[in-house]
Amino acid sequence: MFLIHTHKDAAQIAQLAQVLRQGCPDAVILISHDVRSTPLDPALFASSGAHLIRGAGGRGDFTILDGYLAALRWLRDEGVAYDWITNLSGQDFPIASLAAFQDLLATTEADGYLHHFDAIEQDPASMKPWVWPPHRGRDRYHYQYRTLKTSLSMAERALLRLPRVVLERLTDRVRVNTSFGLMIGALARPGPFNANFRCYVGSYWHTIRSACARYILDYAEQNPDIVRYFRSVLIPDESFFQTVLVNSRRFNLVNDNLRYVDFRGSRHGHPKSLDLDDLPVLVGSSSYFARKFDWPQSVPVLDALKPRALG
């Protein structure tokens, strides 16, 4: 099944759902549309048979995870059967045969395709294609943050840069982050992490078996203290699932999420918008999906990719 997180560009979402339906006729397609956005017209999705639910979205806090967990509850409460779940954004698109993707999932011994690495050890081979400074894992996930201001201008970020750097050099008890507004973090003492419960991180986008998805939902419902802790870290969507699944030691997880993303020149984790100039790289990639495609300027490259996805 496909879980699609969306918040804008209904026509682009409808096209993605239609291609997924054509390429995977028996798949469940569940669209979790951000409650803060204009509601989607169900008529746009009648031909794809996609289910529409209202969910939470966003980046930098726990809201997108709340939306994912709500979708898993919906699947459980509605009694929907599925073998795998692939989460996508509304700006994703398949770049290889969907039939081949289904064949992979039908024959693999893996339980999930999930980018993951230890947040503190940061092994370069495991991190690829990400490159982090050594302190980032600790700064993000060993502190509890409060938001003092929800957004900052470029000028405000520039003014805060020097005091932020000076404070980091003076003490490890406090951190200031300006990526998602003005946030102040206090070192967690004690935090939840230890030798038997490591902090793992990686891309939010993944493909996992239903057993992994059910484990995540059960864990979240049975461990409210861990959920509460992750609500106050930075970018929990890039750590919560990895930390829960890897520490379970139950699943065979491949450190590859089967996605193509171009982070060259990225600021604050936003990948490059892909267009026709990127088509040769996309076609030559071993990935099955890519992001992100901006609408409507992405129409030419999506039109070029559609026959490949359905081939």
From TrEMBL:
UniProt xrefs under InterPro entries: Glyco_trans_14, XYLT
Nucleotide-binding keyword on record: no
Location in the cell: Endoplasmic reticulum membrane; Golgi apparatus membrane
A molecular function (GO) term: metal ion binding
Family matches, as Pfam families: Branch
PANTHER family: XYLOSYLTRANSFERASE OXT (PTHR46025)
Protein name per UniProt: Peptide O-xylosyltransferase
Organism: Alsobacter sp. KACC 23698
